[in-house]
Structures are given as C-alpha cells and as structure tokens.
Amino acid sequence: MRIINNRYRLIKKIYQNDGLASYQAIDIKRSQGVLDLNIINFDYVDWEFYDFLANNFIMLTSIVHSNLKRLYSFDIIENKNGRLDKNYQYFYTTEFVEDVQPLNVLEGLDIDEKLNLFIEIAKTINFLHLKGCLYNSINLSNINFVKVENKLTVKLNDIVTARIGEFVKTNRSQIIFKAPEVIEGEEHTVKSDIYSLGVLFLVILLGGIKFVKIDDGFSKLKDVLPKEYLGINDIIKKMIKEDPAERYDSITKVINDLNSLLNKNYIPFEVEDLEKINFNIKLSGRDKEIKKIFDSFRKNKGCVLISGETGIGKTRLLKELEFLFRLKNINCFSYYNEAESNSRKVFLEIARKIFSEGSENLQDEYREELLNTFEEFKNSIISEELYNEKIELE
User: Fold this and answer.
1) Nearest of 343, 333, 344, 348 to residue 380 by alpha carbon
2) Does the pLDDT at position 220 exceed 60?
3) Which among 7, 79, 124, 205 is least buried, having the fewest CB atoms inside 10 angstroms?
4) Where are the domains of the chain?
C-alpha cells in the first residue's frame, strides 16, 4: 500500500467515518513499529479542531498512561517528491492496539470482573483530571476492550481521537453519554466527564446499551446486581444527576464510595503515574513572542534573534515554532546540538537540510552562494563531475 512521507507504510484501513480515515501502518524509520495513522478530513471537521491540535498536541504527546493510547506525531502529508503540497492533508499517529474484543465480551463477565474494568477506566480519567486535562468524550466508541495474556483489560482512545467527534459537523452519535449541560451547549467540565462515566458504568454492568431511557437501565440493573451490590445504583445516580452541582466533585470520591459500599480497596490513582515529569508542558506566556515571529515572517522583516539565559525555554520555544511553521505549510529547517560551538558546522547542517528537504526553487536560489561558501557541499548537492567542471570554469 501507500507510503506517507517516506516513513509510514500503510498496511490496511481500520475504519473510516466522516471525519477520519484510520490505517494500520509501520514506521519504517523508528522503532515504534506498528502504529495507527489517522488522516483528518477537514471537509467534515471544523477547522477549530486544527487550532486545538496546533495549540495542544505537543503537550498531549507527553501524557502517558498504561490504559490510554499514546500519541506520537501530528504532521502534514507530503507529495511523492517529498515536498509539501498546496492541497495538503493532516494526519496524526498513535499507538496500535491488538486483540480488541467486541462489546458482547462483557456479557460473559461476572460482577467483579465488570467492576475491575470500570475501575481501570475511572482511574485513567481520574489521572487525566489530576493532570488538569479533560477527556470530554467518554463513550463506547472510545473504549477498547483488549485481551492481554488472556486477561481482559481496557485501553482508552487517545485524547485527539476522542475529541475529534466534537468537531465533526455531522456527529450526533453516542448522545446518551453526554451530560445535559453539554447538550445545551455549555463547556465540558470534570462533572460532565463524571456524568458520562456514570452512564458508561451502567452500560458495563448491563453488558451493553440495553435501554433507551436511563431509568429503564436502572430497572434492569436491579435484576443483574447481587443483593450486596445494589447500592451501586445510588452511586451511579449521584454521578448522573441532572444538576452538575449535585454530582460527585471527583472520581476519587466515586471510587472511595465504592470501596465503602463493597469493602474493597480500589486505588483511585497510581502515585507513580502522577510523579512523572512532563517536559512538554504547554508554553505559557509565549503567545506574544510567537505572534511577533510569525508577523515578522509574513512581512519579510529578516532575522529574529532569540537570546537569554540557560534554562528559560529557548529551545522549547524554537521547537514549538518549528512545529507551527510546518503545520502552516512553511518550510522550516533546524539543527539542535547544545554542545556544538562551531557555528560553521551548525549552518552547514541546516544548509544540508535545505537541499535534502526544501523545494527546488529554494535550492536554486541559494545553490551558487552555498557552493562558493562551503566546499563540503561537493558531494551532497551536485555530482563530483559537475563540481569539478565548475571549479575549472572559475
């Protein structure tokens, strides 16, 4: 099948909907091996989703949890010559998950096995909340039931795949999981996530969506739960209260109430997950600087120098700019090596990238100047025969 950006070999299509075409792919340049490659169709997806990705993707790649699919990269599809195309498409890559089970796998589980699955999901969402991030789209489309070493576990879709449904113009799916205030147009909150999690809890215990109205689900749940577990009804009802103020304030409190009711010792979060250092936090207070640099670029004002003391985030800012330039279909070339003090070598490495990755027009514009300045380009820009011929003519 097709190879994207001389790096990702598509193996097979996993699914396609109005907003997304998802493929199983192989990363032929790095050790990530098999992954999911997702091509976004902005004919059906609101462009606000692009802004969400541009502003948050680097930060989202740093969110790592064993029950959450990893995000790897967000990029633009190049044409067959390795150049950026004017009619470009965007894609992102994520962790590939094997051995996903159908929803009816829940029907063969006992009550404690279902509870364990719910706790895995709840702990994952709680982890995100404690990291200051909402999931927003807790529903069956974003929950993968997976067999690992013959044990059933869960893997939630990455946040980008989960969120894209909010921006698809034709999307009305899984509305039963949405909190009333969200349906009315209010912003997502921790409490709207808790509402969705409560509905999902009901679905897992019943082994599927076996009701049209939630009240019908509670009637059926009484026939499913053993007597000592009937108090779960009250916990779910508090999770899905119509008024957000009457719901639980946190998932930790939900899990603690389950422990009290069932005499269990479920842990609401893993301390080691929260202690991991995040080096890709969202840039704060740099919006003005980024805007100034883009304005200078658009007005062709020449060089912008970024200086300052060690450790204030210069490299992080430059990498963010490089990411944003590429997403706007602007050629950007860089070289990062803090130990390198030879400015000639740094410039040479950037120049090499211009000639290996840049457009033909860009190459033609600077070819003569670079050949006259750097003899090192003898073997990397033109053939040895042409180079020697040029020297003789001079």
Assistant:
1) 348
2) yes
3) 79
4) 3-275, 287-393
DSSP H/E element including 252 = helix 251-262
Tell me how far apart the alpha carbons of residues 165 and 49 are, in angstroms, rounded to a whole number: 10
Long-range contacts of 280-288 (CB under 8 A, 24+ apart): 280/58, 280/59, 280/61, 280/62, 281/59, 281/62, 282/55, 282/56, 282/58, 282/59, 283/313, 283/316, 283/317, 283/320, 286/313, 286/317, 286/320
Question: 3-class DSSP state for residue 259?
Answer: helix
Cα–Cα–Cα angle for 105, 111, 115, nearest 5°? 85
Q: Residue ranges of the alpha helices (H) in 131-231? A: 159-167, 180-183, 190-206, 214-224
**Does residue 112 contact residue 158 with C-beta atoms inside 8 Å?**
no
Minimum mean pLDDT among 5-9, 52-56, 76-80: which range? 76-80
Say what the pTM is.
Answer: 0.76
- β-strand partners of 264: none
Q: Quick one: CA torsion of 178, 182, 185, 189, rounded to 10 degrees?
A: -150
The partner residues of 168 in beta bridges, in order of sequence, read 45
Phi first, then psi: give them for residue 121, nearest 5 degrees. -65, -45
Select from 1.10.510.10, 2.60.120.200, 3.90.1640.10, 3.30.70.100 the CATH code of 3-275: 1.10.510.10
Rounded CA separation 92/73 (Å): 5
Rounded to an integer, what distance in angstroms lies between the CA atom of residue 186 and that of residue 15?
Answer: 30
Top mean-pLDDT range of 126-140, 276-290, 344-358: 126-140
Element (H, E) at 37: strand 34-40
Separation CA 235–CA 351 (nearest Å): 62
